[in-house]
Amino acid sequence: MRQATQILMGLVMLASLSACGxxxxxxxxxVTGVDYAGSGIGGFYVIDPNNEKNRGxxxxxxxxxxxxxxxxxxxxxxxxxxxxxxxxxxxxLEGETGDEISASLARRQAxxxxxxxxxxxVPKYETPASGTLWVQFxxxxxxxxxxxxxxxxxxxxxxxxxxxxxxxxxxxxxVIDKKIAVVENRLERDRRGLTKFNHDRENALNEYxxxxxxxxxxxxxxxFSGPGDSRFESFLEGYLKSNLESDExxxxxxxxxxx
Length: 259
Known about the structure:
Layout: H1 2-20, E1 26-35, E2 43-48, E3 51-58, E4 70-76, E5 84-90, H2 98-111, E6 116-121, E7 132-138, E8 142-148, H3 169-199, H4 201-214, H5 218-221, H6 230-257
Parallel strand pairs: 1-7
Antiparallel strand pairs: 1-4, 2-3, 2-5, 5-6, 7-8
Helix pairs in contact: 3-4, 3-6
């Protein structure tokens, strides 16, 4: 009975592998996306316009980035004239605030444009097909696909668009400005904390002691007997000054890096 069960399980596994694997005339390719447009990609998949069951998912992409690899899309082992794929894309919603993003979602739902399809010709590739189906997202909602074992920066990469994406100065400034806003908030908190320590020391010591207790910083508190411990007072002064200096340095680095 046990042997029969093992044989049956083996047959099931073999059938599953046959269904998921590629046949003699096709190859399973990884799917990877790269955003050259700088708009980012909410999600995408590639689908065979002649066989809806042949479909490979890709990952979401931040602007000017490459995603990880997902499996799989079946491509003919040998390229032929007229070979095409459809790239179905979900572009990020517009807006910065919650209301703006919700409005963008509602508009796209009404228009039926939550996803958009780009029809792409597959350029000639080496036989037998292998490696990765690279999906390169370009400006104006266009895309290229490339079948290759090589990545875009390689000198022998067969695609027309080579190299990794280069972020625009506008995008770099936007990213840095967001980081600056975060550090500005920390600096404001740093200065408030140091001012309170200098002018209302007892309350500051008690408040920070309670803060360390809430965040379970036992490695800090175990060294002291309580908020009135003179060693804790010295530690807290150094801690506050160190935070301020660190954030001031980070702020200067960010400002210097801004295009």
